[in-house]
Amino acid sequence: MSGDGIVNILTLKWGNRYGPEYANRLYRAVKRHLSLPHRFVCFTDDSTQLDPGIITYPIPELDMPERARLTGWRKLGLFRKDLPVSGKSLFLDLDLILVASIDCFFDYETDKIPIIHNWTGGMRRLLGQRPPVGNSSVFRFESGKCGFVVEQYLREKDWALANFRPPQTYLTHCIRPEMVWWPEQWVRSFKRHCLPAFPFNLLRAPTIPAGCKMIAFHGRPDPDEVIDGYRGRRPHHHARPAPWVAEHWK
User: Fold this and answer.
1) What angle do CA 45, 76, 17 make, to 5 degrees?
2) Domain 7-185, what fold?
3) What's the pTM?
4) Mind listing the pLDDT tens digit for each residue in 120-143?
5) Which among 3, 48, 93, 175 would be 20 to 30 A from 131, CA to CA?
């Protein structure tokens, strides 16, 4: 599929944690919040029950052990030069919620590879220690022109697989010369920025932060788990009902 001025939204779906409804809801959210001419592409091992408007391809493969194929290491395959999509591409994880226009993600630092500055928790957050590591829930690149990521991985794959945890730390390592952070307010973490800090999470409902365009649900809970309230393993993981999630995730 050649570059034609149409931007691309890319996502990956494999295994059974996220069913087709996740891809379908993300597809509909993109239609609501992206005014640019675009195509929505899902690389997947199972295209059943996906909306007819979603373009599907098999997941691009790379030489890696089976244990890595079931993780975020698979995102590296999106940087293959022979990807069947070319042009400006914004990758979105399936468990994102879009709450405002995302046109700006295609205008920002157009000669760079923008990615989320990964959030930290616990003591690191209190001490202001935030490593320069990207979170690969949302990143943009030029499909077909970033093969250097795959080339580097293939040169050092044994070392990479043995030394980088989680996989997004290796992606950060590869793209660092071209990498910039998205503006902080654009992508927020449900756990870090929407959920009130303990013990207020037991009293107040989660909210949408000002200026937010997308909300990332990394780890647990998932979007469907917070609409009616969520009870985590520990009290500071609990969330009161967040019915606004259902309004944006439909």
Assistant:
1) 40
2) Spore Coat Polysaccharide Biosynthesis Protein SpsA; Chain A (3.90.550)
3) 0.94
4) 865 555 556 789 999 999 999 999
5) 93
